[in-house]
Amino acid sequence: MQSWITRSRETVYDGGRWLTLERRELELPNGQVIPDWLWLEMPSYAIVIVVTEGGAFLLFRQTKYAVEGVTLAPVGGYLEHGEDPLLAAQRELREETGYEAPEWVTLGQFVVDGNRGAGLAHLYLATNAREVTAIHADDLEEQELLHLSRAEIEDALAAGTFKVLPWATAVALALLRLPR
Amino acid sequence: MQSWITRSRETVYDGGRWLTLERRELELPNGQVIPDWLWLEMPSYAIVIVVTEGGAFLLFRQTKYAVEGVTLAPVGGYLEHGEDPLLAAQRELREETGYEAPEWVTLGQFVVDGNRGAGLAHLYLATNAREVTAIHADDLEEQELLHLSRAEIEDALAAGTFKVLPWATAVALALLRLPR
Fold it and tell me: Chain B: nearest CA to A1, how far in angstroms?
């Protein structure tokens, strides 16, 4: 199977760090040309499912602009320019919760949109986390830090209480990975 | 907890059916105003994890523009304008595989990007599927239909062989839902 070829690209909107929209000319393996394929350059992000020394899951109850009402949310945020995804995840854990964790497992990295790119989602599981400092989050949303049990997370996931796609992905992959 | 208020919106790029980029003025609960928040209107999509009468998972091996090399992929596609998500999922199953299924469970609906929108992902699990017709896919990618076992899917998910975020989400949620 052959991949598509990018013949040219043109920026049609430059939103700086947050989003660049490109129009690309692509060539398919059968020779067909698509003159106006839209492509999104967006910052990649890291998400961490955190389990404490005591076996609790660290999560937030918060609002999010694209979501109606409140949602459960894991630790996470955008990578700084050139930042290693794991280091970004560890920084977000410290900033958002004041916790650190000695054990990190990758749950995978995924392209957010199979057609248009939109950055990569880097997902992690951190275990045996413990509180080491105060919270220094720079997020715009109000967040309430929660300690939840595995059963509570499973119920919340099934009930749709994680309302943002990569958050549900990270929670589901962590639940599959963690021994019962 | 209060949600952010949208004070105004302006289209900065109109990509027709596929993508509209808006610049919005938002007001936060503390009164802070963000004058240039970027928002993506993109079509929502449905994804289906399909299990046959014989207990096999129906998946594709295929390329995808945003992905390096080949990837495993579930059944799925964009909703037509105004189309019900479940009907879209059932249509995609028929078109892409020639199968129909009598049993459908929702695995959730999620906003793709918590900050910028980018449409909704509607995820389903369809069981007891059987072949009823020929394949009539209109996808641009070459696809090879596979019948895989649960163990093969679990290994593929852990190995990162599902390379697109919503595909991994749907597979992980289906594995959590299906009895072992």
Answer: 7
